[in-house]
Amino acid sequence: MKSEPRPCLKNIMTPFPYAVESDSTLAQAKALMREHNFHHLPVIENGELVGVVSSQDIL
Question: Contact 17/42 with Cβ under 8 angstroms?
Fold first, then answer.
């Protein structure tokens, strides 16, 4: 019996996600999440990933 192929992240990820700069306001992040129906956003600083903010973080 063959096992089902496991999905790779590249097949389910968002390839070019929206992100917020680390000096963005909570209101800006919240608006971007609402506009695109996202629950998480990467946070970048000088082009580098420094964290992730979730909708729960900014409630």
Answer: yes
